[in-house]
Amino acid sequence: ELYLQKSRCPKIKLFLTGVKETMKEEELIFEKTDTEDKRTTLDPTFTLGMFEEWVRTKDDFKNDSIVFLLTSLMFYDQVGNGISKHGYSYFNGVCSLGVGLAYDSGSRFDGVIHVAQQIAHMLGSPWDTTNDCPEGNRTLMASPGTPHRLSNCTEEALRKTYNQHVNKNVCWRKFQSIGSSSNRSLPANYFRTESYCATRNANAVYECPAGHDYHIE
Prior knowledge:
It is a single chain. By secondary structure, the protein is an alpha/beta fold. The protein contains four helices and six strands; from the N terminus they run H-E-E-H-E-E-E-E-H-H. Strand 1 (33-36) and strand 2 form a beta hairpin. The protein starts with 23 loop residues before the first helix and ends in a 52-residue tail after the last helix.
């Protein structure tokens, strides 16, 4: 939500309605993976379509506008080589095909930016690859880089999507009372019950030293 807060018209507010941990048996239904030299990658094109079909069969998601699959598998797109290396979704599909994929290591919350990009993509925002909004700028829809703002192209696209549907009964107007508020807390707060330092390097796990905020007695 912080990545999208610069949008003023419309103003975008996101609500987390739930988190589901999928089982291996479920993942076998919608994940298309390839293994080569002990390295397993995810085929995002096929997985996105199969994940969308799987979501439609689940009553848990029937009131949700967007459902994301977060995965620690790296993406390898055999169909194309798009600008989005760590996220996939249907363009302008928030109220029809509101599913997305995003890579997240599971320890660094690095999937946050990929989810934010895909939400904007599903709301009709193109990638910043034009002369007016070049890829080299540090904007949300430019890749790679750390975004500092929304480009004019993104803001205009979000306004266009909103204005086209302002008087229609679209999914984002069906506001649900359920949801979770962040209370402006930071992702690292969720690691208070475990060694935060140990999550930074899976191959060299160590404990935070005494005196560190995340030291465990």
